[in-house]
Every structure is written in C-alpha cells, then in structure tokens.
Design brief:
single chain; 22-stranded antiparallel beta barrel
Length: 426
C-alpha cells in the first residue's frame, strides 16, 4: 500500500472517534488555480491544479483533556502537470492525539506533528512531551521517525530524538539548552559525512529594561564539528513612536546544511560561509502613519559583499480596515552579480462582508538578463463572505520577467470553518 493510501486509511479509521467527540471543528480551503506560461523556445503551458486542504479538531474525546487534530491536502491537475511529478498528489501534514494535563502546563502528543524548539525544526512521526518543572525550569522531549517525503532522495534518517531544558524568570529572562540526534541519514555520494545528524545549541531571551529586548541562538553540529548558526537580535524602543533594531547572523553552510536533501542547491560541500548584519528604524509619524528605513550587509565567501537598503511607508485608516504601503529598496551586489532597484506598492481594504486588495512589485536590473532589464507583477484580490463561516475569494495576477514573456495566473478560493458542539442546544 502506498504511503498516501496509508494516510487516507488512517484518516478513515479515525472517523468513529470523531463521531463521538464532544466538540468538533472542521476547516478547509478549496483552491482552483490557473496559470498560463509563455517561455521563449517552448510551447505555451496551461496549468490548472485543484487542491483541497482539510483540517479537523476534535476535543473532549471521552476526557476533557484529550483531543485529536488532523490536517492534510490533496491535489489533482486538470490540465498540464503543475510539477515534474505525477498529476495527483497529497499528504497528511499532521495528525496527532494530544493530552493536556491540568497542572504544570503539561502536554503529551502522539502521531505526526511539528517540533519547533531550540535547535529542532522537525517533522516527526512519534511522541512528544513537555511540562513546567519547579522554580522556573521547563523540559520538553520528543522521539520517533523523521517524516519522509515521497521521493528517493529525501535524505531522512530512521530515528530521531531531541529535547530542550530551559530556565525562565517571567518578563525578564529565559535561557534554553537543546539537542537532537538523527540516526541512519544517507548522504548520497558524499563519503566524508557521518551517517547521523546531531545538533546541540543554546538560546537566550533577555529583557533587562522595558525598552530593551535581546534574543539570540547558537547551534553546533557535532557530526561535522562546526558551529552551524549564530543569530542575534537587539530591539530598543526609547519612546512610544520610535523603535530601533540591530541584527547579526552567521551560517557555515557545510555544518548548517550538512543533511540537506538538495545538495546541488545549498552546496554544503563548498566550504562556503554566509554572514549578514544590519539594522532598522521605525517611527510612527502619527497614529495612522509609520515609516521604516533599513540596511543589511551580506558577505558570502564565494560571491563577496553586497548591500540592501531602503525604506517603506505604511498607512492605516478606518480602524485598520484600510491599509496601504509603498517601499523602495536598492540591492548593490558585487561584480558579476546583478544589482537592482525594487519598488513595491499595495492597498488593502477589509469590510464585514468583503475584502479587496491590489499589490504590485517591480525589479529594475542594472544589467540585462536574457535581453530584459525589468521584471514586474501586478496582483489583484477580492473576497466575499457568503456566510459567517464560508468565504469565497479569488486572485488574478499578470507579470513579465526575464524567464517568461508574459505570465498570467489566477486562483479561486473557498474557505470554510464549522464548529459543532455536542449538546449545545441543551
């Protein structure tokens, strides 16, 4: 039985439990999009994928603290293939049982879920648990098998375990230490990497004063013996209308992307390093208007230095129902890499029954790419709420760029959200 069929079977087996749930929420989005591609030297393509996203949340499964959460999607191509794969596709994004303990903020999950905690940003089939311990300490752990893609080169291991321990003083300080170990990783033709992935790291959040906030994290790859990532952010708000932020990040590609399944894209074997630093200043001119100016400097071993700088103005009116923005940024790249100007403007209006927006962006390149030195896209969107829990919306965009002579894309979206509370009428 295919992996997709197994996921569908798991969903069907869960229906009896859902039927007996005290509280049941069903939400989903139906997307039918179309795209017309015109590429020099190739036949014009017409792509019409239809995609269904569906989520189910069932609470009080025989116990007030027990719940079931499912979310997945399926796609059918109605014309030319939208990907290089087959005409149909689908996946169970997550599906897990969760038990919430009445004390200590305790929680246990079992099934398929995501983990974003410390050095972990994982998709796991397994079990996780967390709880607040005494005197400001907290502990979280997980274990199972990494979720594999339906591809031969997904580069996932057989078993993964991880966890984080932290100490926290509310509103002032939090320090965490985390680690993960993944066993059975295959690295293709690369022979100098080990058959496992192992990361350790620390993270810090500090608020020494009500105007100042600092956060940082660092991770070390013990399988490649190198610091994979360092990232720090400092934000200062000396007065109500003013906010100043500074950041610094550094990545060693060999250590950060050692276990990537797309080695040709992330190039972990080149020994390349990437770092950037910069800052931004935001000032609220008046209650509806604010301006942000920012600068960021990049340095990459194989390409050299580059800079991105510019600003954005934002306007909010009618109690946040109408929002508009206009921005300009300049990217100065080293010799051999194209520099360009970026201009963007948008307008969004939201009402009780409808939403409407228009968004346009343009890139103006210093040097021509395939004979063109401009790229632009204009997108319009409109939506109407048919019922309180049912909304119909659509997007239409047109653009030109060095890759396509013209590109027309459209999307029709139906979003629904229903809650059924057992015994609500009693």
């Amino acid at each position: 039985m295919s992996s997709l069929a197994a996921r569908i079977a798991l969903f069907l087996l869960s229906l009896p439990a859902l039927a007996g749930a005290a509280d049941l929420g069903v939400n989903g989005t139906t997307l039918v999009s179309f795209e017309q591609r015109s590429t020099p030297g190739f036949e014009r393509q017409r792509v019409i994928p239809a995609t269904q996203f569906l989520g189910i949340d069932a609470d009080h499964l025989g116990n007030p603290n027990l719940s079931l959460h499912l979310y997945g999607w399926g796609r059918v191509d109605l014309a030319d293939r939208s990907t290089d794969e087959k005409y149909t596709d689908g996946d169970l994004t997550y599906g897990y049982l969760r038990y919430l303990f009445p004390t200590a903020n305790g929680e246990v999950k079992a099934g398929r879920f995501f983990v974003f905690d410390g050095v972990s940003a994982e998709h796991v089939d397994g079990v996780s648990a967390r709880a607040d311990l005494a005197r400001g300490f907290a502990l979280s752990m997980y274990g199972g098998a990494p979720v594999r893609l339906d591809r031969a080169d997904d580069n996932k291991g057989d078993v993964i375990i991880g966890g984080r321990v932290s100490y926290r003083i509310p509103s002032l300080f939090e320090l965490g230490f985390s680690a993960l170990h993944e066993k059975g990783v295959t690295n293709g033709q690369t022979t100098d990497l080990k058959d496992h992935r192992q990361l350790v790291g620390g993270d810090l959040w500090l608020r020494p004063h009500k105007t100042t906030e600092f956060s940082g994290r660092i991770s070390y790859n013990t399988a490649t013996d190198g610091v994979a990532e360092q990232s720090y952010l400092l934000t200062v708000r000396p007065s109500a209308p003013l906010s100043v932020a500074g950041e610094y990040s550094r990545y060693r590609i060999k250590d950060y992307f050692a276990a990537t399944n797309i080695r040709s894209l992330f190039n972990p074997d080149t020994g390349d390093n990437v770092q950037y630093y910069g800052g931004s200043v935001t000032y609220v001119i008046a209650k509806p208007a604010e301006v942000t100016v920012s600068y960021r400097h990049y340095n990459r071993d194989i390409t050299g230095n580059s800079d991105r700088f510019g600003g954005e103005g934002r306007l909010t009116l009618l109690d946040n129902k109408c929002r508009a923005g206009l921005s300009y940024f300049r990217t100065e790249a080293p010799t051999g890499i194209n520099s360009y100007h970026e201009i963007r403007g948008y307008l969004l209006h939201t009402a009780a029954k409808y939403t409407a927006s228009v968004d346009t962006i343009a890139h103006l390149y210093d040097d021509k790419i395939f004979g063109k030195n401009t790229a632009f896209e204009v997108q319009g969107s409109a939506g109407y709420r048919l019922r309180p829990n049912l909304k119909l919306s659509g997007d239409l965009s047109y653009g030109q760029n060095p890759q396509f002579n013209d590109e027309l894309k459209g999307l029709v979206r139906l979003t629904f959200n229903y809650d059924f509370i057992k015994g609500a009428g009693k």
